[in-house]
Design a protein that fits this description.
Length: about 550
């Protein structure tokens, strides 16, 4: 017997129509220099129709890729809906990648039209000769500036001449709606094509109370870039539920973010830990009214427990750890306490919240050990995290590296984790970052979080250094806070760790650096550090 429900395709078009019908008054605000630009969902939906007509005139057809090279702003949101709802594929490009990788991505995706923010024109001008498939460039402004790009159009001029009525086609939920590329830390970036169905279901996942809980009453500020896994899906779910959106544009300094939260009364924001660590340092010196915030979502890299604690104890702000990947649209886990954990001692509560969390509904998880067997959920046994679900990829786009990324229908994340009996995932390392010393696995991430809890430390990254006896030993690369550059010592870092870790797990040495290198999405770039210290001789080896 089969169910007798309608064949209703899960596509983004009903989301756009819902926003137009129900939330036409709700605001979309963008920081544009010192001023704020304000539009409504009603205006966004009308402009999306004009944009679809424009794209059709430029020769964009169903299945064609349309690239964006842009900051978080209202025009970018219009592209988020106009492109997939007309049947084409939205392709936000990571503007922080090296030029050769951007050229590879644009050519691999076969992008037909490229939209670019005016401030980013110089970067695209340098790349233009290498972009083989791009037929049109559109600058996301009022008029065409002086540029070498050709043919070039102005966004607002195109929309002004286009009709607002557009007959949105009937799409299949498995059609591609958008695509992003991994940041290419090893080899060329890999493409991930998201279906309408995946984004639709993922948006429901983000709206669940035990996930991000985004609803109409929220004011959402996506600080995570719209090119980074579609801003973690926040623009889609915000449109679906009618939440007010605040876009920071290119203004991502701590003061910019604090003032936006204060002035726009933001209730939920999301970004990588380095952004929130910067804002925390600012808040130690200046006061801002951030009382509207109900939640700060932190992902993209592990948030130090000390940061989570300081925000809550000093400022009354709740930081929620989440984890996901480009290959997962990206939501995987969210770290929230269960009802019977709320009354646990404070130290236990923060220890749980510092983990990456339990899997969101729609995501299945397992950890696989070195022998290929499933690791027990005991909170101790290391294994590679593997996932599956309706918004997780089944293969990379047009890439022969796909088979090695899957195992028996599960996606191999490359993260080394433990899973405790309650189902909380704790990422202890990437498979390439874990330190293998004398038969033991040492978590660089655990050491980093502990070091960053030291009051004199701003950032810390721990890498493996070769050792003739133990194979590898940990080296701590520490960035002191500005006020302590001349007073911090190696000995106090090691002493700070003593008692928290067995002697075997303590770093063999500590070096002080100006800053930890970052990837294009704000994660610590340990491959740069490993290259810098590839010939480093530890004191225990040199006899020092």
């Amino acid at each position: 017997m089969q169910g007798q429900m309608m064949d209703y395709q899960l596509t983004l078009t009903p989301m756009l129509e819902r926003a137009r019908r129900l939330f036409y008054k709700k605001e979309i605000a963008t920081k544009a220099g010192p001023a704020m630009e304000r539009r409504t969902y009603g205006e966004m939906a009308e402009r999306a129709g004009r944009l679809a007509n424009t794209l059709e005139k430029l020769g964009v057809r169903r299945g064609d890729r349309v690239a964006t090279f842009a900051w978080n702003n209202a025009r970018h949101l219009e592209l988020y809906f106009a492109v997939p709802c007309m049947g084409a594929v939205l392709h936000p490009i990571n503007l922080r990648l090296p030029g050769e990788q951007i050229a590879y991505i644009v050519n691999h995706a076969d992008d037909k039209v490229l939209f670019v923010d005016p401030t980013l024109l110089p970067a695209v001008e340098k790349l233009a000769p290498h972009l083989k498939a791009v037929k049109h460039f559109v600058v996301m402004g009022d008029k065409i500036p002086e540029t070498t790009l050709n043919p070039i159009h102005a966004y607002e001029e195109l929309l002004k001449d286009a009709a607002s009525d557009y007959a949105w086609p009937r799409l299949h939920e498995n059609d591609a709606a958008a695509m992003c590329y991994t940041s290419g830390t090893t080899g060329n970036p890999k493409g991930v094509a998201y279906s309408h169905r995946a984004i639709y279901l993922h948006s429901f996942g983000l709206s669940m109370a035990d996930s991000f809980g985004i609803c109409e009453r929220d004011t959402v500020m996506p600080v995570v870039p719209m090119f980074h896994v579609l801003a973690w899906g926040t623009p889609f779910v915000s449109t679906m539920v009618g939440a007010k959106i605040v876009f920071p544009g290119p203004h991502l300094q701590p003061r910019d973010l604090a003032e936006l939260i204060q002035n726009e009364r933001v209730t939920l924001t999301a970004g990588v830990p380095t952004l929130w660590m910067g804002m925390l340092a600012l808040m130690e010196k200046e006061r801002f009214d951030l009382s509207s915030l109900r939640e700060m979502i932190v992902g993209g890299a592990a948030a130090p427990q000390s940061m989570i604690e300081t925000y809550e104890k000093k400022h009354g702000l709740k930081v929620t750890h989440a984890w996901g990947m480009t290959e997962m649209t990206p939501l995987g886990t969210v770290s929230k306490l269960k009802s019977y954990q709320i009354d646990l001692p404070e130290a236990e509560r923060f220890a749980i919240r510092a983990k990456q969390g339990t899997p969101a509904m729609g995501v299945e998880i397992r950890a696989v050990d070195e022998n290929g067997g499933e690791a027990p959920w005991d909170g101790k046994t290391f294994g590679e995290l593997q996932v599956r679900g309706p918004w997780i990829i089944s293969s990379y786009y047009n890439d022969d590296r796909s088979p090695q990324s899957f195992m028996d229908g599960w996606f191999r994340t490359g993260d080394v984790v433990t899973i405790d009996p309650e189902g909380y995932v704790q990422i202890v390392d990437r498979t390439k970052d874990v330190i293998k010393s004398g038969g033991e696995w040492i978590s660089s991430q655990d050491l980093e979080n502990a070091i960053m809890a030291h009051p004199k430390v701003l950032e810390a990254a721990v890498i493996a250094v070769a050792h003739p006896k133990w194979q590898e030993r940990p080296l701590a690369c520490v960035v002191p806070k500005p006020d302590f550059k001349d007073s911090i010592t190696k000995e106090e870092i090691i002493e700070h760790l003593r008692g928290r870790f067995d002697k075997m797990y303590l770093p063999d040495d500590v070096v002080f650096i100006e800053a930890v290198p970052k990837t294009s999405v704000g994660k610590f770039d340990k491959k740069v550090l490993r290259q810098s210290y590839r010939e480093y001789v530890l004191p225990s080896v040199s006899g020092g």
